[in-house]
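Morning!

As promised:
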Amino acid sequence: MIATAALFRNEFRLLLRNPAVVIWTILIPIAAIVVMCLIPGARKPLPTFGGLSVIESYQPTLIVFAATMLALQMMPMFIGQYRELGFLRRLQTTPTHPRHLLAAILALVLAISLVVGLVLLTFPLLFGVGLVGRLALQSLLLVLVAASFLGVGAMLAGVISNPRVANGVGAATAAMMWFFAGMWFPRTLFPGWLATISDWTPGGAAASVLGAAAAGQTIGAQPLIALGLWTVVGFAIATRSFRWE
Amino acid sequence: MTLITVQGLRKSYGAREVLHGVDLMVEEGEIVGVLGPNGAGKTTTVECIGGLRTPDAGTIRVAGIDPTAKNSELRQILGMQLQQCHLPPKITPAETLQLFAAFYPDPRRTAELLELLGLTGQADQRFEKLSGGQQQRLSIALALVGRPQVAILDELTTGLDPAARRDIWTYLQGLTGEGMTILLVTHSMEEASYLCDRVYIVDDGRIVATGTPDELATSRGSQTVTFVPSVPIDPADLLRLPGITSATVDHERVTVLGHAAAPQTVLAALIARGITANQLRVTGPTLDDAYLRLTQEN
């Protein structure tokens, strides 16, 4: 436990020394929500967004963006680099098994995703956007969403050994998640077949549940099942395929 | 007390058997060297002892612990320095030592290790900015941070400058005085001669010789006597002397090889004939010679 805590602190310190992580997964998503909140027009409910404001309709996309950047694009690369450097093997010579390092990394990525997600959810409340009463449900969903991306990221880290390949595949997977979350093209305009595929991806399911929660709609079972499945299947594949050397 | 026992150790990578039955013993408080050419199986041997690889056959005990079965017990008493091992590029030596200290119940203090391994000035420099020698010294420090009963050091001072090597040797000798046992993989005969109580010479997956560095050197090496005689002599005359194994002449310079008493025998014979030996040189056998003979015989 002491060892895992020490590894967690150490990973956190190293992560903060990595400008790409800080900029893409923390600064940019938070800056985006701050800037949008400062634009009065973005705070007004619009009928085209089903009575939601621009901010509320982009919130899920930003949450997906931040979480996927860290869990899919960065994390598999870091783990691959540790394997390649021989750092996992180095830990094997100590009383601490390298799985404690993986646990620390996963916990750290989850923690950052949750903190950034919470900022993205709560900051607009200061500008009267969103409802405090919906925050509890939104936070709960945020945990599910972050966990499912973590599962997919762990799966990539397990299946792909080469850190550069992991980074590339992670980036492509993240971009796909943004697409399914409606970053470039509103999800409401997806044709039926694309909407169905999208709903079963973690990105699409995440946008679907977070959007419904913001609008005060009932959360369907399907996206929740999709998120749960990706979490469970992702971690199951990761633990079976992961190689220490 | 025997701390490390290895019997009949065999290991294959795919179809290729790299260890064909290695036997080895290390007593408590000893520094034992494992010498041998590249690919002889030195690293595989110590990695099996250190529980990083599973042997195909044979038994290993480290302080009574079977490394393949009781890995977590082994980790408490064993410190390992690995040959190819890097740390995250942005971590500093002080942070690394503090991190590893958290893995052990009674770790050595970070400041002490930094000081002893000459890294105090680099304590807050990132690993990627350290020189090869500094990275190597940090790697040694990590093997020692948990106050191990046994340390396995693979290629201890490769790439270190002579002064740093001497400092580390002296430090390690001090630690064995406190009861630590060291198993050392090395390419350096100087290191083995200076540091090791005993050495094992490994070649092609087998132990081909063992003993103290001096024993090995004298058992396999010869005394060499070279001189320029004041009057030409017939090397055949010298060969008839007891204990002389070879005598040759090259441009007036005579080179005689023989057993331990050979220099005395040769000089006595020369004096008896009234011949002066000019530019006389006597060189003793070295571990280098013994090593080269042993590994080339195979």
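Chain B has two domains: 2-211, 219-285.

Hope this helps with the figure draft.
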